[in-house]
Amino acid sequence: DVVMTQSPLSLPVTLGQPASISCRSSQSLVYSDGNTYLNWFQQRPGQSPRRLIYKVSNRDSGVPDRFSGSGSGTDFTLKISRVEAEDVGFYYCMQGTHWPPTFGQGTKVEIK
Amino acid sequence: EVQLVESGGGLVQPGGSLRLSCSASGFTFSSYAMHWVRQAPGKGLEYISAITPNGGNAHYAESMKGRFTISRDNSKNTLYLQMSTLRAEDTAIYYCAKEDGGHTQIDYWGQGTLVTVSS
Question: Which residues of B touch A48 (CB under 8 A)?
Answer without folding.
Answer: 95, 109-112
